[in-house]
Amino acid sequence: MPADHQYPSGPPRISRVIGRELPRASAADAARTLVDGATAGALSTVALEPVGYPFGSVVSYGLDERGAPLFVISALAEHTRNLGGDTRASLLVTEPDVPDADPLARGRVTLIGDAAPVPDAEQQAAIALVATRVPAVAGYAGYGDFRCFRLAVRAIRWVGGFGEMDWVDADAYAAADVDPVLPHRHGIATHMNDDHADSGLLLCEQALGAPVTSATMRHVDRYGCEYVATLHGDDGLAIVRLGFSEPARSNEDVRRLVVELVHAARPR
Asked: What is the reported pTM?
């Protein structure tokens, strides 16, 4: 895959873990989770007219067992005509917009591959799979000019926000897990920073063994959460990763596991 370009150096990654260490959700997990949580994206195809230019359109989609997008499209659509001449395509999927937030801070995934009709013997099952996620598909899939296409994914570009990005191997994406916490990370972090800032200070001071003047939760997934802490005195910054004692399966689990971390830190 293409090498990433370099970014200005950020805060030093001083990592400490409270409790049993668990991994961070991988880029493959994050990409699969984002794509699984949406039902529409921007499909780009190679245009027949004007020849060779990228052509963008919007399609709804479902996913097969490997996370490959399935979309039911009309033979009359421009993107379908384009795919008849060149199967190369990509699907861009973005996180929902957050009011007053920078749109470029949203997570997004670009799935790159080749799009072709699903074999005739699998058409009805594939259409039914899409319709379970996008019920409107059932209303027009029966028309004779509609067929289900699959995007055979060859590469994935994941962007989690500013400074968080990676190329994801297609097999790693196909085998990745959907993280039940990642879609809610912005809301969880906002709640913790607005209503429980003292807990963040306590956790970071205990983890770093040094006083801090501020601690802001910047990320949470099923395995744990991360804070950006400002060290007392020299204004240095540290990234503090706090591992949960077990993977979280819901927002309520996150609340319970963060409370557990705070209780463990207080006696120390």
From this structure: 0.83
Residues 139 and 232 in one domain: no
Same domain, 60 and 132: yes
Provide the domain count of the chain: 2
Alpha-carbon span 99 to 110, nearest angstrom: 23
Cite the beta strand spans of 132-231 per DSSP E: 146-161, 164-169, 212-221, 224-231
Q: Is 178 exposed, middle or buried (0-12, 13-18, 19+ CB in 10 A)?
A: middle
Residues 224-253: tens digit of each pLDDT: 999 999 988 766 888 899 999 999 999 999
How far is residue 159's CA from residue 36's CA, in Å, rounded to a whole number?
15
Query: Is the separation of the CB atoms in 108 and 85 below 8 Å?
Result: no
Domain presence at residue 7: no
Question: For residues 28 and 169, is the Cβ–Cβ distance under 8 A?
Answer: yes
